[in-house]
Design goal:
The complex is a heterodimer of chains A (181) and B (88). With 181 residues, chain A is an alpha/beta fold. Chain A has six helices and six strands; from the N terminus they run E-H-E-E-H-E-H-H-E-H-E-H. Chain A has a single domain, classed as Rossmann fold (3-Layer(aba) Sandwich), CATH 3.40.50.300. Chain B has five helices and no strands. The chains are: A alpha/beta (181), B mainly alpha (88).
Protein backbone atom coordinates (compact mmCIF):
# COMPACT_ATOMS: atom_id res chain seq x y z
CA UNK A 1 0.00 0.00 0.00
CA UNK A 2 1.36 3.49 -0.81
CA UNK A 3 1.69 6.08 1.93
CA UNK A 4 -1.47 8.11 2.52
CA UNK A 5 -1.23 11.62 1.12
CA UNK A 6 -4.28 13.00 2.80
CA UNK A 7 -4.98 13.05 6.54
CA UNK A 8 -8.36 13.87 7.97
CA UNK A 9 -9.88 14.03 11.45
CA UNK A 10 -13.07 12.08 12.01
CA UNK A 11 -15.11 12.47 15.21
CA UNK A 12 -17.20 9.39 15.93
CA UNK A 13 -19.70 9.29 18.80
CA UNK A 14 -20.31 5.93 20.42
CA UNK A 15 -24.04 5.55 21.09
CA UNK A 16 -25.87 2.93 23.12
CA UNK A 17 -27.36 2.12 26.47
CA UNK A 18 -25.34 1.48 29.60
CA UNK A 19 -23.39 -1.80 29.70
CA UNK A 20 -23.75 -2.61 25.99
CA UNK A 21 -19.96 -2.60 25.76
CA UNK A 22 -19.03 0.75 24.17
CA UNK A 23 -15.91 1.16 26.32
CA UNK A 24 -14.96 -2.51 25.89
CA UNK A 25 -15.20 -2.26 22.11
CA UNK A 26 -12.87 0.75 22.07
CA UNK A 27 -10.48 -0.96 24.47
CA UNK A 28 -10.39 -4.08 22.30
CA UNK A 29 -9.89 -2.09 19.12
CA UNK A 30 -7.22 0.30 20.38
CA UNK A 31 -5.35 -1.78 22.98
CA UNK A 32 -6.44 -5.31 22.03
CA UNK A 33 -7.43 -5.84 25.66
CA UNK A 34 -10.57 -6.96 27.43
CA UNK A 35 -11.60 -6.73 31.07
CA UNK A 36 -14.58 -8.73 32.32
CA UNK A 37 -15.35 -6.30 35.15
CA UNK A 38 -18.04 -3.73 34.38
CA UNK A 39 -17.00 -0.17 35.17
CA UNK A 40 -19.64 2.37 34.17
CA UNK A 41 -18.30 5.31 32.18
CA UNK A 42 -18.82 8.67 33.86
CA UNK A 43 -18.72 11.73 31.64
CA UNK A 44 -16.85 11.07 28.44
CA UNK A 45 -13.54 9.60 27.35
CA UNK A 46 -11.76 10.40 24.13
CA UNK A 47 -9.59 7.87 22.36
CA UNK A 48 -7.64 8.53 19.19
CA UNK A 49 -6.57 6.03 16.58
CA UNK A 50 -5.18 6.45 13.10
CA UNK A 51 -6.50 4.19 10.37
CA UNK A 52 -5.50 3.99 6.76
CA UNK A 53 -8.35 3.23 4.41
CA UNK A 54 -9.02 3.37 0.72
CA UNK A 55 -9.96 6.87 -0.36
CA UNK A 56 -13.41 6.84 -1.96
CA UNK A 57 -12.54 10.15 -3.66
CA UNK A 58 -9.17 9.29 -5.16
CA UNK A 59 -6.54 6.69 -5.99
CA UNK A 60 -4.28 7.14 -2.94
CA UNK A 61 -5.12 5.73 0.47
CA UNK A 62 -6.29 8.12 3.11
CA UNK A 63 -5.27 8.39 6.74
CA UNK A 64 -8.15 9.05 9.08
CA UNK A 65 -7.29 10.23 12.58
CA UNK A 66 -10.34 8.85 14.32
CA UNK A 67 -11.45 10.48 17.55
CA UNK A 68 -13.78 8.14 19.41
CA UNK A 69 -16.09 9.80 21.94
CA UNK A 70 -17.16 7.27 24.53
CA UNK A 71 -20.17 8.79 26.23
CA UNK A 72 -21.77 7.54 29.42
CA UNK A 73 -24.71 5.31 28.66
CA UNK A 74 -27.03 6.48 31.41
CA UNK A 75 -29.75 8.88 30.37
CA UNK A 76 -29.81 11.10 33.49
CA UNK A 77 -28.10 14.18 32.06
CA UNK A 78 -27.50 13.09 28.48
CA UNK A 79 -29.97 15.58 26.96
CA UNK A 80 -28.48 18.48 28.92
CA UNK A 81 -25.01 17.54 27.72
CA UNK A 82 -25.84 16.80 24.11
CA UNK A 83 -24.24 19.94 22.61
CA UNK A 84 -21.10 19.30 24.68
CA UNK A 85 -20.85 15.73 23.45
CA UNK A 86 -22.15 15.75 19.91
CA UNK A 87 -21.00 19.07 18.43
CA UNK A 88 -18.91 18.39 15.33
CA UNK A 89 -19.62 14.65 15.26
CA UNK A 90 -19.24 13.14 11.79
CA UNK A 91 -20.44 9.62 12.48
CA UNK A 92 -22.34 7.50 14.98
CA UNK A 93 -21.34 4.01 16.03
CA UNK A 94 -24.61 2.68 17.45
CA UNK A 95 -24.03 -0.25 19.81
CA UNK A 96 -26.65 -2.81 20.83
CA UNK A 97 -26.27 -5.82 23.13
CA UNK A 98 -27.28 -9.18 21.67
CA UNK A 99 -28.64 -10.27 25.05
CA UNK A 100 -30.92 -7.23 25.67
CA UNK A 101 -33.64 -6.43 23.16
CA UNK A 102 -34.30 -2.94 24.57
CA UNK A 103 -30.77 -1.86 23.66
CA UNK A 104 -31.56 -2.18 19.95
CA UNK A 105 -34.79 -0.19 20.22
CA UNK A 106 -33.00 2.52 22.22
CA UNK A 107 -30.65 3.28 19.31
CA UNK A 108 -33.33 5.38 17.60
CA UNK A 109 -33.40 7.81 20.50
CA UNK A 110 -29.61 7.98 20.60
CA UNK A 111 -29.43 8.70 16.87
CA UNK A 112 -32.20 11.30 17.12
CA UNK A 113 -30.41 13.11 19.94
CA UNK A 114 -27.02 13.12 18.21
CA UNK A 115 -28.51 14.20 14.88
CA UNK A 116 -30.39 17.05 16.58
CA UNK A 117 -26.94 18.56 17.23
CA UNK A 118 -24.68 17.19 14.49
CA UNK A 119 -27.14 16.92 11.60
CA UNK A 120 -27.96 13.88 9.49
CA UNK A 121 -24.60 12.13 9.93
CA UNK A 122 -23.81 8.55 8.89
CA UNK A 123 -24.65 5.82 11.38
CA UNK A 124 -23.21 2.31 11.59
CA UNK A 125 -24.76 -0.33 13.83
CA UNK A 126 -22.97 -3.00 15.80
CA UNK A 127 -24.47 -5.82 17.84
CA UNK A 128 -21.94 -6.54 20.57
CA UNK A 129 -21.58 -9.65 22.78
CA UNK A 130 -21.89 -11.91 19.75
CA UNK A 131 -20.10 -14.59 21.79
CA UNK A 132 -23.18 -14.93 24.05
CA UNK A 133 -25.30 -16.89 21.57
CA UNK A 134 -27.00 -18.90 24.34
CA UNK A 135 -28.30 -15.69 25.91
CA UNK A 136 -29.38 -14.15 22.60
CA UNK A 137 -32.52 -12.01 22.99
CA UNK A 138 -32.54 -10.66 19.45
CA UNK A 139 -33.40 -12.97 16.55
CA UNK A 140 -31.21 -12.42 13.46
CA UNK A 141 -34.22 -11.40 11.37
CA UNK A 142 -35.18 -8.66 13.82
CA UNK A 143 -31.67 -7.22 13.80
CA UNK A 144 -31.47 -7.37 10.01
CA UNK A 145 -34.86 -5.70 9.65
CA UNK A 146 -34.03 -2.97 12.19
CA UNK A 147 -30.85 -1.88 10.44
CA UNK A 148 -32.19 -2.35 6.91
CA UNK A 149 -35.19 -0.09 7.61
CA UNK A 150 -32.85 2.67 8.77
CA UNK A 151 -30.28 2.01 6.02
CA UNK A 152 -27.50 1.68 8.56
CA UNK A 153 -24.70 -0.72 7.63
CA UNK A 154 -24.06 -3.04 10.56
CA UNK A 155 -22.10 -5.99 11.89
CA UNK A 156 -21.81 -8.34 14.83
CA UNK A 157 -18.86 -8.02 17.19
CA UNK A 158 -17.53 -9.35 20.44
CA UNK A 159 -15.30 -7.14 22.55
CA UNK A 160 -14.57 -10.24 24.61
CA UNK A 161 -13.18 -12.40 21.80
CA UNK A 162 -12.25 -9.57 19.45
CA UNK A 163 -14.33 -11.03 16.62
CA UNK A 164 -15.66 -8.39 14.25
CA UNK A 165 -14.18 -5.47 16.21
CA UNK A 166 -11.65 -4.04 13.70
CA UNK A 167 -14.18 -4.54 10.88
CA UNK A 168 -16.74 -2.53 12.84
CA UNK A 169 -14.50 0.48 13.40
CA UNK A 170 -13.15 0.43 9.86
CA UNK A 171 -16.79 0.06 8.74
CA UNK A 172 -17.91 3.31 10.39
CA UNK A 173 -14.86 5.20 9.09
CA UNK A 174 -15.48 3.99 5.53
CA UNK A 175 -19.18 4.84 5.87
CA UNK A 176 -18.34 8.39 6.97
CA UNK A 177 -15.80 8.87 4.18
CA UNK A 178 -18.04 7.46 1.47
CA UNK A 179 -20.88 9.73 2.61
CA UNK A 180 -18.59 12.71 2.05
CA UNK A 181 -17.47 11.88 -1.45
CA UNK B 1 -27.54 -10.48 32.20
CA UNK B 2 -26.73 -9.68 35.78
CA UNK B 3 -24.76 -6.49 35.39
CA UNK B 4 -25.24 -4.20 38.39
CA UNK B 5 -25.60 -0.59 37.28
CA UNK B 6 -25.63 1.98 40.06
CA UNK B 7 -27.52 5.20 39.41
CA UNK B 8 -25.45 8.13 38.21
CA UNK B 9 -25.70 10.20 41.41
CA UNK B 10 -24.51 7.26 43.54
CA UNK B 11 -21.65 6.60 41.17
CA UNK B 12 -20.59 10.26 41.34
CA UNK B 13 -20.68 10.17 45.15
CA UNK B 14 -18.59 6.97 45.26
CA UNK B 15 -15.97 8.35 42.91
CA UNK B 16 -15.70 11.67 44.73
CA UNK B 17 -15.34 9.92 48.07
CA UNK B 18 -12.42 7.98 46.61
CA UNK B 19 -10.92 11.07 44.93
CA UNK B 20 -12.31 14.58 45.46
CA UNK B 21 -10.62 15.71 42.23
CA UNK B 22 -12.08 12.96 40.03
CA UNK B 23 -12.68 15.11 36.98
CA UNK B 24 -15.24 12.79 35.36
CA UNK B 25 -17.30 12.69 38.54
CA UNK B 26 -17.05 16.47 38.95
CA UNK B 27 -18.18 17.03 35.36
CA UNK B 28 -21.24 14.84 35.85
CA UNK B 29 -21.93 16.44 39.23
CA UNK B 30 -21.95 19.85 37.50
CA UNK B 31 -24.52 18.48 35.04
CA UNK B 32 -26.65 16.93 37.80
CA UNK B 33 -26.73 20.19 39.77
CA UNK B 34 -27.60 22.19 36.64
CA UNK B 35 -30.34 19.71 35.79
CA UNK B 36 -31.80 20.24 39.25
CA UNK B 37 -31.92 23.99 38.53
CA UNK B 38 -28.79 25.01 40.43
CA UNK B 39 -27.03 26.60 37.46
CA UNK B 40 -24.68 28.77 39.49
CA UNK B 41 -23.50 25.76 41.48
CA UNK B 42 -23.15 23.76 38.28
CA UNK B 43 -20.95 26.50 36.82
CA UNK B 44 -18.80 26.65 39.95
CA UNK B 45 -18.18 22.89 39.76
CA UNK B 46 -17.52 23.14 36.04
CA UNK B 47 -14.92 25.85 36.63
CA UNK B 48 -13.20 23.43 39.00
CA UNK B 49 -13.22 20.79 36.26
CA UNK B 50 -11.61 23.25 33.88
CA UNK B 51 -8.95 24.23 36.42
CA UNK B 52 -8.00 20.55 36.79
CA UNK B 53 -8.24 19.77 33.07
CA UNK B 54 -8.68 22.78 30.75
CA UNK B 55 -9.20 20.38 27.81
CA UNK B 56 -11.82 18.15 29.43
CA UNK B 57 -13.97 16.91 26.52
CA UNK B 58 -17.10 19.00 26.08
CA UNK B 59 -16.56 21.10 29.21
CA UNK B 60 -16.19 24.48 27.48
CA UNK B 61 -19.25 23.82 25.34
CA UNK B 62 -21.23 22.82 28.41
CA UNK B 63 -20.04 25.98 30.17
CA UNK B 64 -21.27 28.03 27.18
CA UNK B 65 -24.66 26.35 27.45
CA UNK B 66 -24.99 27.05 31.18
CA UNK B 67 -24.09 30.72 30.64
CA UNK B 68 -26.69 30.89 27.87
CA UNK B 69 -29.28 29.42 30.24
CA UNK B 70 -28.33 32.16 32.72
CA UNK B 71 -28.70 34.83 30.02
CA UNK B 72 -24.98 35.70 30.21
CA UNK B 73 -24.22 36.34 26.55
CA UNK B 74 -20.63 37.61 26.85
CA UNK B 75 -19.61 34.69 29.08
CA UNK B 76 -21.36 32.29 26.71
CA UNK B 77 -19.44 33.64 23.70
CA UNK B 78 -16.16 33.54 25.58
CA UNK B 79 -16.69 29.90 26.57
CA UNK B 80 -17.69 29.03 23.01
CA UNK B 81 -14.46 30.54 21.67
CA UNK B 82 -12.48 28.47 24.18
CA UNK B 83 -14.41 25.39 23.06
CA UNK B 84 -13.47 26.03 19.43
CA UNK B 85 -9.80 26.56 20.35
CA UNK B 86 -9.78 23.35 22.39
CA UNK B 87 -11.42 21.28 19.68
CA UNK B 88 -9.06 22.49 16.94
Amino acid sequence: MTMPTEIMKVKICMAGEGAVGKTSLIRRYVLDQYDDRYIATLGTKITKKSVTVANPGGPDPLQADVILWDIMGTSTVRELLKEAYYHGAQGILAVADLTRRDTLIALDEWARSIRSVAGDIPTYGVVNKADLQKERALPPAEIESFFRQRRWPWSYASAKTGAGVPETFVGIVKHVLSSRS
Amino acid sequence: MGIERPDTASLVRQRLLANADDVDALFVLAALRAQEGYLEEGLTILDRVLRIDPRYPGAWRFKAKLHRMQGETAAEQSARRRAEDTER
